[in-house]
Batch of 2 targets.
Target 1
Amino acid sequence: MAARKDKSFADYRVEGHLWITLSTGEYYPDVLPLACELYKPVLVTFGQLLKSAYSSVDLFMAIAQTQPQWMRIQLCRVFRKYVSPETPVEMLKKKSSAKNICDRFGRGFRKVTEVQDRFQSRPMPDEALCAVLWEYKDRGQKGYDLTERLFTIIREHFPSLEITGPERAGKDVLLGELFDNYPKPDRPVDFVLSHKGRPVAIGLARYDSDRGGAQEDDRTGQYRDCATEVLNYAKQHALPLKVIFLNDGPGLLLGSMWRDYAYIEESRPGLIKVVTLRMIPERITLKWLLSK
């Protein structure tokens, strides 16, 4: 009897909606009371700093000195909406970069008098802005849930394996700390599977609520680069490493995402597997992980 051919990631595409997991969201406008309660102190603080600022640069420098960190980050988000929408949020969040940001972007800041006029024209709390800030609150949460469930599944199905990495939030595994003379020592991965102390697979995990266009191209391009780098290193050092890309969520069903991931898997047959959580018991086996 001929051996049954293992299903590839591409083979699941027709019934892809059955193989993804969905994280629950929150209903609008039900979230508004909680959003206003959480972010009203942020808007009040922003208003106080705004009243005492003699310029928008002065306002931002005052925000940069605000403690605790959570409050400072929220104030930066409000600042971006009112004063400098072109300034990247991640850049604004870096306290040490405050002066550099003002030097580079300060000329484009909206005038402080205009900011105050616009701010005072809005109700307190501003439901619309609170709703926008609320959207940031759980950003990344679905990804944390995904990796936590991955760790649980691996421990249940593969008791002989050790899985390392951030189970939820935390520092990624850097391959330069795992392998000697790794070509890109700061290459981060989300998890590593080991058997008897020897790494057998490295993996990346992502939850896609929605994705498309340039973001879609960026993600698959990053995956290809990572897989090529890891597998070339493994070949040079005679290491039987595999690469696992755990992707889940409805974003997989959009555009060419599923097909693009299938191409990545097919580029190195037997060495790369793309899976959703529901596929792990069926597609990831100890035999495959330990094969050479």
Target 2
Amino acid sequence: MKTIYSFETAKAYEKYRDITESFNRRLLDYQKLLEKDFALTELPKAIVWTSAELATTVFSEVPIPAFTNKDIIYMSPDLAEWRQLFLKQLDGKDLPHIERFYADYSENQLFTIAAHELTHHSDLFVDEFEGERDDSIWFEEGMCQYLPRKFVLNPAEFDEITAIESELVKVFTEDYGGRSLDDFGSASYLGSLSSIMFDYWRSFLAVKELIEGRFNNDIQAVFEQYRQWHEGGWKIPLTAFFGIGE
């Protein structure tokens, strides 16, 4: 996997050199985990480190500066920009403790976003990059949230982000809770930032409940059921197959 730096000035490259070099080293370790346990057999061609502005206005129009486009990962390493983004997703709601969490959002938490993008390349996901995913991407997105958090964060960090996102789902359910989790798909990215993130929060929590609640922490068993659903021809929605309530 090539590493490409796409910044508009040499000064910007120098500003982010330490964090990107650190993340590149850590991604190698996380890559080994995916190769060993989660069927990562082919790496993306490159990871492009870039600014939040370029990520969301030039390389993509999605308002989140981390994404995978076929076989290339794009991500901003700017921790300050990510903190502002996560505060913006709150839509001005009065949530002081959550605001404090995102104002102090850690480099370790940010690394899980880079690891999330690499996780998408696992062969365990049956429809990986085979065209527009119109709906029901919650399982892949939720698993790509869960695995990096489970294997990168310490237990306290994992519990904290789980509690934060659980509360955010409750807070925003009145705004966005009327739609099915199976509606999470390519069209979701046309919505507001909080609307997009609501689906990510729900997806992570649904996958966490499957793994830790239904399958006694057996991640491979969850993937096996997912594979059976796929091989069965997607006859019912994936939420119904897993018995997930809306």
